[in-house]
Structure formats: structure tokens, C-alpha cells
Amino acid sequence: MDTQALSVESANIARRESAWQRLQQHWSVRIGGAVLILLVLAALCAPWLGTVDPTLFDAASRDLRPGQSGEITTLDGELIKHQFLMGSDSFGRDIYSRVVYGTRVSLLVGIATAVLALAFGIVFGLSSGYLRWLDGPLMRVMDGLMAIPAILLAITLVAMWRASLVTVVVAIAITEVPRVTRLVRSLVLSIREEPYVEAAVSLGTSTLRIMFGHILPNCIAPLIVQGTYICASAILVEAILSFLGVGLPPDIPTWGNIMSEGRVQFMAYPHNLFFPGVFLAVTVLAVNILGDGLRDTLDPKMARRL
Amino acid sequence: MNVLEVRELTIALPRHADRAQAASRVSFSVGRGEIVCLVGESGSGKSVIAQGVMGLLPKGLPVTGGTVLLQGEDITRASQQRLRELRATRMSMVFQEPMTALNPVMSCGAQLDEVLREHTRLSPAARRRKILDIVGEVRLPDPERMIASYPHQLSGGQRQRVMIAMALVLEPALLIADEPTTALDVTTQAQILKLMQDLQARHGTGVLFITHDFGVVAEIAHRVAVLRLGELVELGAKEEVLKRPRHDYTRMLIGSVPTLKPHARPADGAAAVVLATRGLSKTYRHRGWFSAHREVLAAVDVNLEVRKGQTLGIVGESGSGKSTVARCIVRLIEPSSGEVLLDGEDIAAMPARRLQLLRRRVQIVFQDPYRSLNPRRTVLQAIIEGPRNYGMDRAAAVQRARKLMELVRMDPESLNRYPHQFSGGQRQRICIARALAMEPELLVADEAVSALDVSVQAQVLALFEEIRERLSLAMLFITHDLRVAAQVCDHVAVMSQGRVVEYGPAAQVFGTPRHEYTRALFEAAPGRDFAFGAA
Predict the structure, then answer these.
(1) Is A4 at the interface with chain B, CB within 8 A?
(2) B502 neighbors B165 (Cβ within 8 angstroms)
(3) Average pLDDT for residues B290-294, to the nearest whole number?
(4) In this model, does residue B206 exceed pLDDT 90?
(5) I need a surface site. Which of A106, A184, B145, B467 has the fewest CB within 10 A?
(6) CB pairs under 8 A between A and B
(7) Where along chain B do the CATH 3.40.50.300 domains lie?
(8) Are residues A13 and B356, on separate chains, in Cβ contact within 8 Å?
(9) Chain A neighbors of B377, CB-CB under 8 A
(10) For chain A, how long is the longest CA-to-CA vector?
(11) How far apart (Å, rounded) are the C-alpha atoms in residues B495 and B326?
């Protein structure tokens, strides 16, 4: 008991540095964060990074090896010389440009999915954790959703709707919502027993205010961490869907689409898969490393649980 | 030769701590067959010293000076290997919380056996004999069944007996007991203290007993060492220290311990009844699909009255139902039957919408100051929340919050800080201010001073008294501590197993207890022969 009391004490001592300071000192946060910032910058500045329009193609520049130079026709019919840093695909499109523009899609899908899944998960989890009569029905629906393999569910949903950025994001988010709901619910179940929640009840605070004003702010740290994991998984799932040909339409350059198109001539031109694959792996790794770091600093209890 | 000789022990704290050293130049000794009590408030470094003696200090707290001699051998220089050998054979430890100190997935017998297997070469049969012996010696009923039981199947007192058996099975020269009775009820505590005294006298064990409770010190100690912020301020024989304390700090501590004599304030029998319960009962039903019905009678037919400007105390051990009654009265839970009359109006089964209007009039202060305030909200937000809920405009609410902070002796300028920036006592003051912001007629204090250090407890109790007097509040004071009850209550209800077994004016209940359970409680109160507080 007292060793525990002591570790709490030293934890308190450590907590005097602000959460922000501790975040900056954590190596996982630094590395993951730095890589992600680079990727975000690349996505934002894509047009100025020596790229051409990723949908441009030129039959003369088909299947170039990385580093080779060739020519490409713009939409205005102008012929420009271009160095293909990562080679070109079988249509003569610049893989480097496609990969850099693909970063936009991947990050957008990852972040949008995380935000969407968290938003719905928070509402469902809070309701089911705090309003006991809703708990049974709501959680059975979530159990049902979780019983369907996530990829299968996402494929079905995208197939039902027309494939677009929005439908892909929504489809992936739906598969993540039950997990967030469960997390929030378990947090709410323990926080609702805290005396400060009871105190709020006796102060006449409304149920809605208790849920969103008292309980939710105390769930934020684990939710941020969970958000990063969702983000990483959404980026992967989007790539998988595109690779399978059921994701975003092929005219949008995404890493999954690039790999999907390069698959047929993988033996002859492996760079078609190699570069988007590396970007995908590095992005997911960076998000996960950042998530681990956030977990260690923001939510030490969860670090022990996982 | 002394069993334990601590000389000038200095233990450093991490860089960001509030002081440089957890213990600075602490010296004391424990002789054979002697019980030395290490007394201090939280943060005094008493547990750190115990860990230092056991060689269990975490990395962040290194020993930077001095020696710890266990039968002449310096612990601070011993290797990990040597420390492992010494633990259990020559020194052992009993912790505060037996539930966490015992392994929940091993039977008690297996855990005892592990100690013997590790440190002796006895045959399985001999080990079993030894285990049965020691389990019998700590007076656990039915030893055979006990050693086959898992920790969760035993009561708190039985678990602590198992811990003591484990600590003493190899007859160590030194036993360190770190608040071993703090988590136990007062009657169980009395039994465990008696047991430890008997065993230590029979085996001649030296005991280093760590506690914050002067009642326990009076009960068990031969010598007393008083710690304050890592420094030893007083060391001497029990009688000397308790009756003629030399250091101001010791005097202040002993003066803060409430007496068992009830105060002599006459209670006005004509004062208006603010709250009354009639036949209040709460039954918890467990209805599983596959398991049998289970019913727990948490409160049965409770009839109480609290009058304006007076304090009713509910006294009882854990599980007696005293908190259930408090929570029914505040309507945090719904009573199963009976009435809760607030100014004559029954709120026991009132629907939520109507209850909302009455909530204001009954407020509660909880036990744990660290969990009673939302860590994400400032003190100001906490205090004005209630008045704002009832439509007070913000400026007026802030004005009231500032006044209340002054009333509870806190700086109104600190309203914009967060709870973690305050100590336990300060937080409890904030909780009181939050409750008072509603201008309640009845204030319920559910073990509101139990988690506080004795000196802080005295201040908060004084604050409660002052508030009751100035605002002529009715107060319901729930406590397990008879001393606290004696100090603040006009009337006392003693609860046991969900029922009120004795109820009357404090002077009568304390002076001539009629029910045998009440008498047993008084018998068990540690240090009842010492006149604390009067000093």
C-alpha cells in the first residue's frame, strides 16, 4: 500500500512539469511528431515540391525507372521535360507526384475518420455509460457491429454507396465507433462513481451538463491516444480498400490506388509498389509512435493496462 | 545489541519535490522485544524510512548518508542478494492494505509456503506443520480451511492476520508494521493490536510500528519517535512523549487529537426539526439470470431527527449502513421504503423534476478531498456551479464565492486555481465552500475529516463548528471515529449492520452506553485511557 502511496507521491512530483513540457521531452512524441509534421507539410505544399499534375500521363514516358528523365504533356498541350524521381507507371504518370498528392488523401482520411469515430463514440459511450436504461440496447448494437470483420463491413458499406472520399471515411469510421464507445463507456462507468460527480448531482446540475461538463473532460487523455490509433488504422484500411479496388475511384491518386495499379507489373517494375508502400508504412509507424508517446505522457494508467 | 540501529539516515527526494530530503539525519534504535512507534503526518517521511530499512527504496529516493544496522549489519551497503536473504528471515514487513499486499490468485497457505520454500530447507510435511502452527498462533479460526482460502474469501482482519503470520513465520528479529491497522475497523484494530503485542512479547521481536494515530501509539508503543517533514523532532518513552511532550510540534499534534469526552454544549430541544427520517430503509437486490437472489439490507427502519443549529452524528464501522443513510438523505440514491422529511415534506420518493427544486437545501461534503473536486475545473467553477444552476447571475455568484472563500479561511485570489494546487485540508475547505454556496439548511458531512491529518482535522472540525454556529445550520456528521463524534455532535446514533442500535444525546451515549455494541466500540477505541486534546 505504501509503496503505492509513494509512487503516487512521486507521480505528483513529476506532474508539476506541465503536460506540454513532458510531451516535448518524450522521444516517441518528438520522432512521431516530427515525421508527421514533415508529411503534413508535404501534403500542403505538394504543388511546389517539383511535382506535376498527378493525373497527367504521356505514352512516351511509360514505365520509366526511378531517376530517369522524360517528357510529359500538360493539359494545355504543352510538352515539358520532367525528371521522374520515383519513375513512372504504365500510363506514363509520375509516381513521385502521385505519392506526394496521395499523402493528402491518406492524412485526410486518417484524421477525418478519427474525428468522426471519436465524435460518435463519445456520444454513444457517454449515453450508454451514464444513462443505464440505454446501456443494454446500445451496447448490443455495438456488439453486433463488432461481430462483423471491419474490412468486410467497410467494403460492404462502400459498395452500397458510391465510392467517394466521404463514403470511405464514413465506412471506416463506422467500424471504429464501437471500439471508441466501449472505451468511453468504461471510462464513464468509473468516473461516474467519483464524488465530484455526486457533488454535481447534489448541486442540481443537469444530466447533460454532468455528462459533457464533468465526465467528458476527464476522458480526454485516453481519447486522444485512442484517436491516434484510429487514425493509423484508418490510413491502412483506406489503402487496403483502394488496393482491392473498392476504395476511392482510381482517378484519385491514393497510395492504395497506386499500388493497386502497379501490382500487375510488380515483377518488372517494383518501384510502382515500393514508394507508396514505404510512405504508407512510415506514416502509420509515425502515427503509432506518436500515439505511444501520448499514451505514456498523458495516460500512465492506460500504459499499464495495455 | 539493538535489533535495529538507524544512524543519521538521510534519504534524498527527486529534484522537483517540495523539499530536498525525504528523511534527514534520522537516528533511532529498536531493542529486542521493544515496540518503537514512528509517528508523523502524511509527508513526514515515515514510510520512506521503513522502506529504507527494508532496502525497498525506489530508484528516485537514494540513501545519501547514514547507516541502518540490522543486528550490526549495514543494510545500506548490502547487495540485493543479501537483502533478499535478510528479508523474511531477519526482518519482515506488514503493510497497510492486506488485500493488495497478498496475491489474489494464490491461496493463503501457498503464499506462506512460498516464504518457507524460499528461505528454508524444510520438507513439505515440516513446512505444512509450521504453517498450521503459525496460522493457529495468529488466532485464525479453523487453520486447515484458512490456508486453503484465497484472500478475497477472508475478512480484512483475517487477511491482516495472514500477513502477520507470513511476516513472523521465520521468527525475524525485526518486524516493520506500516500502518497495519489503518484500513481496519476499530474493533478489528483492537484485536490486531493485541495480537501483535502478544506475539512480539512471546518471540522477543523488535517492532518498528509506523502510524499517524496517537490512540494506537498510546495503546502499543514502548518508545515513540515523532517525525516532521523528514526530521526527527522528538524521541522518548511513551509516557514521556504523550504526557510531557517537549517539542512544540508534538504538543500541537497531541493537542489536536479530539478527546473521547463529549462537549458540554446544551442542546436546545425546542429548535425546529430540519430533517427527519421515518422508517428509512434501503435494500440492495441482486437479481442475476443464473445466480440466486441476493438481498443486502443496507439500512433498516432508520428514524432520525436533525434540528436547526445542531449536529447529529451517525457512528458505525464500515458496512454499518451509515453512508447509505447519508446518501438516501441527499437523494443520491433512492430509499427502498420509508420517509425522508425535509421541513415536513417527504423527498424519499419525489420525482426528479420536483426534487431538483429542493436539492439546494441539503448539501454534502465527502470523505476524499482528492476525488471530491473535478480536476479539470477551477475552484471558482466548482463553487459557482450550484448557484448558477439555480439561476443566479454570474457576477453575484462570483461575489458569493469570494465571500465563502473568506469564510472557510482561504484566499479569494486563489479562486482561479485548479484543485491539484491545494493540499487535502484546503480542498476540504473548498468542498465546504461549494456546499455552502447553495445556502443549505442541512449540511451532511460523510466522513469529511477522516482522510485528513490530525492537525488539519482539528482545523476543519473547528471550521464546521464555526459554520454551524454562524449560519445556524443543521448538520449530519457521519464518522467512524468516536473522538470526532464526541467533539462535534449534540446527538449520536450508533449504527450496526444497517440498524440504529443506540440513539440519544451525545452525553448520554458516551457517558452511559446501553447497547453492548456501543460498549464494544468504546472498549476498542485506541488510547481511551489517555486524555488527549486537554493538553
Answers:
(1) yes
(2) no
(3) 69
(4) yes
(5) B145
(6) 97
(7) 4-256, 273-361+440-524
(8) no
(9) 214, 217
(10) 78
(11) 12
Q: Are B158 and B140 spatial neighbours (Cβ–Cβ below 8 Å)?
A: yes
Residue B178's beta-bridge partner residues?
A: B210
**Are the Cβ atoms of A202 and B362 closer than 8 angstroms?**
yes
Q: Are A182 and A190 in contact (CB under 8 A)?
A: no
Touching check for B193 and chain A: CB below 8 Å?
A: no
Mean pLDDT value of segment A255-282: 88
Instruction: Let me know: does B496 contact B513? Beta carbons within 8 Å.
Output: no
The SS3 of residue A227 is: helix
Chain B partners within 8 Å of A15 (Cβ): 420
Sheet with B35-39, edge to edge strand ranges? B91-94, B174-178, B206-211, B35-39, B223-228, B231-237
- Give which of A15, A132, A196, A205 to mutate to test B binding, by max B Cβ within 10 Å: A196
What 3-state class would DSSP assign to A161? Answer: coil
Q: Cell digits for A183? A: 472505451
Q: What's domain B273-361+440-524's architecture?
A: 3-Layer(aba) Sandwich (3.40)
Q: From the centroid of its chain, how far is CA B272?
A: 34
Using CB atoms, which residue from B56, B364, B390 is nearest to A204? B390
B178 close contact with A: CB closer than 8 A: yes
CA distance B356 to chain A (A): 6
- What pTM does this model have? 0.82
Contacts of B93 in chain A (CB under 8 A): none
Considering only alpha carbons, which residue of chain B is nearest residue A13? B17
pLDDT at B263: 78
Query: CB–CB of B387/B342 below 8 Å?
Result: no
Does an H or E element contain B11, and which?
strand B4-12
Q: Tell me the average pLDDT across B465-477.
A: 91
Measured at the CA of A290, the angle between CA A286 and CA A294, to 5 degrees, comes to: 170
Q: Do A217 and B431 touch (CB under 8 A)?
A: no
**Angle between helix A27-44 and helix A271-298 axes, rounded to 10 deg:** 130
Is B431:B449 a contact under the CB 8 Å cutoff? no
State whether ipTM is beyond 0.90: no
Q: Are A114 and A228 in contact (CB under 8 A)?
A: yes
How far does the CA of residue B485 sit from the closest CA of chain A (Å)? 23
d(CA A69, CA B274): 92
Residue A112 sits at the chain B interface (C-beta within 8 Å): no
What is the average pLDDT across A99-116? 93
Homologous superfamily (CATH) for B4-256:
P-loop containing nucleotide triphosphate hydrolases (3.40.50.300)
Do the chains contact at B434 and A203, CB–CB below 8 Å? Answer: yes
Q: Which of A69-73, A102-106, A266-270, B390-394 has the lowest mean pLDDT?
A: A69-73
Q: Once rounded to an integer, what is the mean pLDDT over residues B156-185? A: 89
Domains of chain A: 28-305 (1.10.3720.10)
**3-state DSSP call for residue B250?**
helix
| B487 three-class SS | helix
